[in-house]
């Protein structure tokens, strides 16, 4: 079984904040985290409509102005933070791909490697 990969400490991600990570050293962020409603949500940084294109318009900029939806900068699709479902834009009926997260008793957040391999 592959070892989970450390992303950040829980306290480093504030409410209403998003952040991208490159846990598998692909040369670009492939995982994004968002803290919303006190919970950290993890998603693959790949738009389901736009060929898996990374979604941030600049480093760690994944959210709309209200900070209540994830937005794809390539075409403006908006996704529900908790479910990953597209709620606005050309990919209605599609969803972001969730990654499995693990938080330790020391409040360190890890991504589980199978999150990279899911399709």
From TrEMBL:
Database matches in SUPFAM superfamilies: ISP domain (SSF50022)
CDD domains in the cross-refs: Rieske
Matching InterPro entries: Rieske_2Fe-2S, Rieske_2Fe-2S_sf
Keyword match Iron-sulfur: yes
Rieske domain mapped to chain residues: 5-91
Keywords from the UniProt entry: 2Fe-2S, Iron, Iron-sulfur, Metal-binding
The name this protein goes by in its record: Rieske (2Fe-2S) protein
Organism: Telluria mixta
